[in-house]
Amino acid sequence: MRAITVSQTGVGATVPVPMDQYQSPFNVGFGVVVSGSVTYTVQYSFDSPFTADYDPANATWYGIPDLTNKNSNQSGNIAYAVAALRLNVTAGTGTVTFTILQSGVQG
Predict the structure, then answer these.
(1) In angstroms, what CA-CA distances link 13 with 28, 74, 87?
(2) Which tens digits make up the pLDDT trace of 88-100?
(3) pLDDT tens, 26-75?
(4) pLDDT value at position 78?
(5) pTM of the shown model
(6) 51 Cβ partners below 8 Å, 6+ apart?
(7) Can you give the C-alpha Rg of the chain in angstroms?
(8) How far is 85 from 45, CA to CA, in rounded Å?
């Protein structure tokens, strides 16, 4: 998978970024770059964005414990399968850029 970058300015969530759940090993790395003042959480979901009735607002999102309520540049990884990742800004007016890279075959 090529690196995917999404950003969020002010309060709100980025669009969900679908992951290849069938990639083995699953390994996903990501980085968050903050510009200005914000508080954010990196989140994942097991709800697949590829189902016909998918709505990100109704999906169940879980915060990554080490990346909850952060306000500075951070990086992390996930080694288990998840359906999607997103970044949720809960306070502030700055911009957060979220870059995700999943290992495996690059298209």
Answers:
(1) 19, 17, 6
(2) 999 999 999 999 9
(3) 899 999 999 999 999 999 999 988 887 888 888 999 999 999 999 999 99
(4) 94
(5) 0.90
(6) none
(7) 13
(8) 7
Q: In the chain, what are the domains?
A: 4-102 (2.60.120)
Candidates 102, 100, 106, 101; CA nearest to 14 is: 100
Question: How many other CB atoms are found less than 10 A from the CB of residue 52?
Answer: 4
CA distance 102 to 56: 21
Between the alpha carbon of residue 34 and those of residues 10, 28, 30, 40, 99, the distances in Å are 11, 20, 13, 9, 12
Sheet strands (E) in the chain:
4-9, 12-13, 17-18, 28-35, 38-45, 62-63, 74-78, 84-92, 95-102
What does residue 8 show for φ and ψ, rounded to 5 degrees? -140, 130
